[in-house]
Amino acid sequence: MPERATRKYHGTPRYKCKNCRRWLTADQFNGGLGNRCRGCDKGRKRAWRAANPKRYAMMTKCHGAIRRAIKRGEMKRPTRCAECGGGKRILGHHPNYKQPLRVVWLCDTCHAERHKEAA
Ligand SMILES: [Zn+2]
Ligand SMILES: [Zn+2]
Ligand SMILES: [Zn+2]
Questions:
Q1: Can you tell me the mean pLDDT for 75-93?
Q2: Listed residue (7, 45, 2) closest to 23, CA to CA
Q3: Could you tell me the distance, in angstroms and rounded to a whole number, from the CA of residue 9 to the centre of ligand 3?
Q4: With contact defined as beta carbons under 8 Å apart, do 73 and 36 qualify?
Q5: Separation of 24 CA from ligand 1 center, angstroms?
Q6: 109 C-alpha to ligand 3 centroid (Å)
Q7: Which residue intervals of 8-88 are DSSP H helices?
Q8: Which of 19, 27, 34, 61 is the Cys-Cys partner for 40 at CB 3.0 to 4.6 Å?
Q9: What is the C-alpha separation between 76 and 79, in angstroms, rounded?
Q10: How many angstroms is it from 102 CA to the middle of ligand 1?
């Protein structure tokens, strides 16, 4: 868990959302306690989707292709991250959405890093 400014209300730690500047409990943030709360994250994703409809459609298609390949047993979701070897939630990252079945399996943290670089 990253170092975060915390405040305690009645013994419960609160974390500040950098976007809406509200102090919220951990369950109001996505896993890993990002800088934005769930609500702000959702809004940001929605805005991105509206701004990049083609890319979003491609992503959805790729994610569907992976899901189907796993279902058919052609692919296996590993239990470890390809980058740090961590075994939290593993996500399939597409370095190139033109190759829907080529994915790198990364944990939440490494995946977020990749997207920071790419963005
Ligand atoms: Zn917020
Ligand atoms: Zn990792
Ligand atoms: Zn990705």
A1: 92
A2: 7
A3: 36
A4: no
A5: 8
A6: 11
A7: 38-51, 53-71
A8: 19
A9: 9
A10: 34
